[in-house]
User: Fold these one by one.
Assistant:
Number 1:
Amino acid sequence: MITRRSMLGGALAAAGLPLLAPGILAGGEAHAAEALPPAGPRRAKGPVPPAFTMAMPVPTVLRPLSSTGAVDCYELKIRRSTAEILPGIATDVLTYGGHFPGPVIHARSGRRVLVRQHNDLDMPVTVHLHGGNVPSASDGNPMDVFAPGTARTYVYANRQPHASLWFHDHAHHMEAEHVYRGLSGAYLLTDDLEQSLPLPKGQYDVPITLRDARFDERGQLAYTMSDRNRTTVLANGRPTPYFEVAARKYRFRLLNGSNLRLFALGLSDGSLLTQIASDGGLLERPVAVPVLMLSPGERADVVVDFSRHAVGTRLVLTNTGPGRPEQVGKVLAFDVVRTADDPSSVPQVLRTLRPAAALPKAAVTRDIELSMDEDGRPDPRGFINGRMYDPDRVDTTVAFGSSEIWNVTNSNKRAPHNFHLHLVQFRVLERGGRPAGPTESGLKDTVRVMPGETVKLHVTFDGYRGDYVYHCHMLDHSAMGMMATFRVR
């Protein structure tokens, strides 16, 4: 019998790619135990420049091909290109429309967006709007790929509040490498509430994708599953760059676009970051934090006020997450180069969300276990509730309109994971048996789950009916099989 899995397997084989790359290791261990012997190829001495010698670019904002009535239409070619990630070197990348870093689509709640994606690669792809409440036909299911030389139109009704979303490839077993090589972009959804607030806007509202990479001696992106030597940190596609700012407030929309790395972000002068939003939009109130944690796929919007610093000051965004500080400790330098008027402010109340006690009563409680082989075998597997992903199996069926409690546990001893649900934004109720902290009090679609930890989620399935997936968004892990299907009916 021909299944969706065998069809994709044939496409992968035709593209010269294995269904499961040989020699992959338990990727989470790369960030859980520095004492473990290195996995994957050793990092070659490459042409990575010293920190803060390249400028960070601002991603290109796409203009609609047409705007009629309440619909904006875009057209993109998914194609190979080159980018000057390292000075003077053309690095091969995969892109949406030739843009690296990926482009930005601006959208508005209640206004539809249609994106016609043309596949100009030699392998199948699919496009997932991460955090989007979309029909299953436009969700970018890992098996719902479209072939080279064909196109697919994705329809986004934007029936949800403002949020800093993003889109990326999701073709199963290929998603990790495709995203690593560049197939991601920002989808910034706004609404009347967000626009009414006096937050920094325009050129002072900057999306920043953070990720890591490894380059070979020719300056090309080197990819190996679970590679621990991805120790070059990129901000908007440049290695540890600088960004010139005015002495005023900025809104930075931070996305962890890494396959595996966890970031713990702070400012070099010890001042606090003001977090105003998470995956699903604004928090109820701003939260001042010394360190901001982001696992792969998570987003956080922060406001930094540079008016406290004189022109000529350099402020560094640092990372104290897993890894050696001399390799991954510096992320991005903010150079204060001028003064500027600043009419913006951060209100003490940003939005109103239901308190946890007032959320709809849960009809069902489910236990979700994330795990992977960490016994040193050459081909580790990923599991949800003890089973690898099977696209022909529905693992969970939920009633449309119902609310549920999902207790998600990482049963590994060393490997961290995180958890992403398609279709919905959820609320994090508890972490490790304690109430979720203020940075996780808003709407979320991705949440970190450290070894031995359990997070308790409240989920309401009132968007669309159909089949969707949930998985670890450390993409090397989902490619290993840490993914499952849920059906809303």
Number 2:
Amino acid sequence: MRPDDPLLTILACPLDKGTLSLLPEEDALYNPRLRLSYPIVDEIPQLLPSSGRKVGAVDHERFLTSLKASAP
């Protein structure tokens, strides 16, 4: 999945229905509000609630830093 993929504008977290951010280096979509990471497998986001992986504090901060650095 690319950062400019139009699909990113309509994808939402299955739990809180909020927006997701692309983490290209992790090949995942991230919900910073719930600290959940959803994998992208073969270009297909895995957005089942059970697919979300809880992210620890260190990775959360790293992801936020990465997202701020890539913001336009």
Number 3:
Amino acid sequence: MIHLKAGQNTALTAGTVRFTAHTAGTVDLGALVVGEDLRVRDEHDHVCASRPAAPGVTFAGGAVDIALPQVRSDAHAVLLFVTAGHVLGTVTATLAENGTPTAEFVISPTAGESALICFEVYRRGGVWKLRALGQGYDRGAAQLLPAHGVPATATPQAAAPTETAERPAGAPGIPLEVDHGLQRMWMIFEDAARSAAALVSARDYAAKRLDQELSDAVSNPATRNTPAADAARAEAHRRHDELVGIADSDHRRDSDHLGREIAEADSVMPAALASWLAPAWTTKAARSDGIRLGELYAHDRGELRVPYCVPVPLNRPLWVDTESSGGASRVVGALVARLVAALPDKPTRVDLIDLTGGLRGLAAPLAPLLAGPVIVDHADIPARLGALAHAADLAEIAYSSGQAVPPSEHRILVAADFPHGYQASDVVHLAQLMVRGDLIGLSLVIVGSGGVDFGDGPLSLLSQSCRHLPTMPGTPLFDPWTGNAWELDLDMLPAEPELQARYLRL
């Protein structure tokens, strides 16, 4: 039987699974059949003692049984939980496949929780998997059920929820800013993040336990230099190495599985989400809901490299943090290539501001897409940004009057060498485009100094609203599920002209 830690997952091979849980005191078991937003469709997706059946999910004899092939086809997952009328102690959750216990998860609540989501049985690419969650709710079922969409009038296990009950911030399993192909990439990222968190947690625990046991071994001056103390120290190191070894082995297993999943995904993703060597770049362009920025990795956690992707249209401008636009030219080229590839059904026009000439090498291959001459003089910036901002204002007026029409083209604005040479009015125009640019189909990419203290003015607000992409090694990014640090290796447009033409779809 596998002993899971929070965030770890494992594949399910049987068609029928059973969820049970044990703790001190009486608890009630239940299940929620949820969509990709982790919310039920209606009260019939809530299975418990008083509502014991939904398609493929039944409650009987103090257990929840799931016949996986019978779960409704549009369901994303089944959340398995326990609730109690008291503060929960340690809960041992078990999942059995065809009657044989195969996974166990021990949860020790520390914040007065009276309800816990123990497991998530979820569907990934036609295969069912199990993830250990441990998400707690200190207001019990009255908080858990409404957070997942169970109507207030249909919560028989608990009193009516308070009006402020919401989905808990950072609840495990919630895909952020994702859909379709992008969703798959973010789910892989989440699995990698949780596996990394389990490894880090196990290493930290092993180190603290070793330190404590070594201290205990030498705490008595009369025995610290005896064979017994030597044996205690040796045993402490053995226990430490054993725990770290198991954690490393589990993480390698997870990483190997995710590596295979990444390779499989790369072979079917649209070009904007795929690596440069993927087959999508040599076939007919397909629309994408996201773009790939690069790969996330952590040297101390193995060789796994996870694609880092964001949605399109861009919900936040991209800011390439660099002191040299020239040094980041191929990074900018990769971003533009993927933005072009994401929306192949619309003509693309690019506005390029390049005051220092650092992007001169990019201007030539982009020439067929340029909306006008490359801006190399700061005096020409206000007119170009003003025209775009004015178009966005008109689009907003049309939208407010109910006469809006979808943008007929995709505009990409690359503002390089920022903020040097830009006037205050230019910053205001960029801020306006950040808010209203989607109305004219605009994607905004800023290239320049991002680590500067801009004070409290419009420049600071613009910086805080952007998604910053570091170009210097050693700059950490933190995943949204566990808060662990990753490094980002940004994709770069190949230097060969023929490849640039291919990737820019010219």
Number 4:
Amino acid sequence: METTNLKDGDYCVVVKGTHIGKSGKVSDINTSKTGHITITVEQDNTVRFKTLGRNVVLKTHTK
């Protein structure tokens, strides 16, 4: 997946890293000094966590 396509409000699923299997809406997109994209993901139950943009894939929300 091309992570440069991430934007606020996109629905994503985490496929790598500590939060694997979790999903939610993307917010707070930042690029670090080293060039890594970090995002905050808000789950449907309003719990938030931070992860790297390369750890997620975009999905269509089916709720």
